[in-house]
């Protein structure tokens, strides 16, 4: 019952394309890890998927067509690293550089991914990860959406001091 209620608030394309991912127990665990401010990794990934779809709507007007399914799935999994990067005891050094690789490894373990979905996950931190350059339009869109959502979450969605 709760799962259905949570899904009612999601964009229909995220519900449709991401059903397998959203229902996975490890994906649900991301609700327990903070990403930016008081936003969970789970909610951040949903925001990135939704923002990617909004960007895609603008691109359609320019006659640029993206694979929405792969873009949404890549966005949902782009931060699928499954650890608390804020935990000082277990903190991985240089999280920003290395978490795309951890996310990709976990996603490949739990889901069947396309080449495009793998590229989205692996390259979403470009240009920080300067050698991991997006090679698909969907990868560029998710990377830009991730930066926008991260900025908004960091500046606007912090717990009051």
How would you sum up this structure, described in words?
This protein is mainly alpha-helical and 161 residues long. It is 61% helix and 3% strand. The chain has a single domain, classed as Hypothetical protein af1432, CATH 1.10.3210. A two-stranded antiparallel sheet has the order 1-2. Helix 5 packs across helix 7 (115-123) and helix 7 (115-123) packs parallel to helix 8. The protein is globular and about 50 Å long. Residues 1-7 have low confidence and may be disordered.
Q: State the low-pLDDT regions, or none.
A: 1-7
Query: Which structural class best describes the helix and strand composition?
Result: mainly alpha
Helix share, percent: 55-70%
Task: Give the termini separation.
Answer: 35 Å
Q: Per DSSP, what share of the residues sits in E-state strands of 2 or more residues?
A: under 5%
- What is the number of domains? 1
CATH topology: the name is Hypothetical protein af1432
Order the strands across the largest sheet as they lie in space.
Answer: 1-2
Please count the beta strands (DSSP E, at least 2 residues each): 2
Q: How can the largest sheet be summarized?
A: 2 strands, antiparallel
Please state the second-level CATH architecture.
Orthogonal Bundle
Based on Cα principal axes, name the global outline. globular
**Order of SSEs:** HHHEEHHHHH
Q: Count of helical segments?
A: 8
Work out the radius of gyration. Answer: 15 Å
Mean pLDDT: 85
What's the level 1 CATH class? Answer: Mainly Alpha
